[in-house]
Amino acid sequence: MNQDPNELRKFNTLASDWWNPNGSFGSLHKMNPLRLSWIENITSTVNGKKILDIGCGGGILSEALAKSGATVTGIDLAEDVLAVARDHALTSRLDIDYRCISAEKLADEQPAAYDIITCMELLEHVPNPCSIISACATLLKPDGYVFFATLNRNLKSLCQAIIGAEYLLNLLPPGTHDFDRFITPAELCRHARQYGLSVEDITGIACDLTARHFRLDDDAKVNYMVACQKT
User: Fold this and answer.
1) Which domains does the chain have, with CATH numbers?
2) Which residue, of 1, 27, 56, 126, has the fewest CB within 10 Å?
3) Across all residues in the chain, what is the average pLDDT?
4) What gap in Å lies between CA 176 and CA 4, rounded to an integer?
5) What are the tens digits of pLDDT across the range 141-157?
């Protein structure tokens, strides 16, 4: 299975902190409105769409999509984190189908089943990101959209995303990221096209580390997102 036991253990340990906006995943809470608006701008709307959130974690994006009218399935391999997602969805009175299953296995079960797929901050945590991209292409309906978010691999991303965010400003727990697993936009786009996905948009997410403020930006040198459509 395309998983790293150390990564799963790390996120399971932090599961109880997932919905704390000032905690270990505070940056995800701050980025979430930007991601949702970007997805809706490209797709026109998520209302009424069947959406798969791969690597859903505690459900921050899954819940935002459900509140916007989508039918959402969230999958993850970290079982403690999924338990938090299920509990929070119940408290929020949201009907989200959370499953502990890999993207690859789900692709075998449900080919061409989803209008939209989101895969945020996952590719840099798995041994074989190409396998995830391939599964996304299989899971998408024709003309469907998949949205990836990950981290670029260069000196700026090392300084900001790891040294600055993890060790100087404590925006993320130390050891959250492995620089060697970061993926350049060129690499991600090449893999996407390999599996029949057309790259429609690339946008960066800039962060003022001192103010802990995020915004969409043309600079994709650190955090960035890629929108692809199934051709």
Assistant:
1) 5-230 (3.40.50.150)
2) 1
3) 95
4) 13
5) 999 999 999 999 999 99
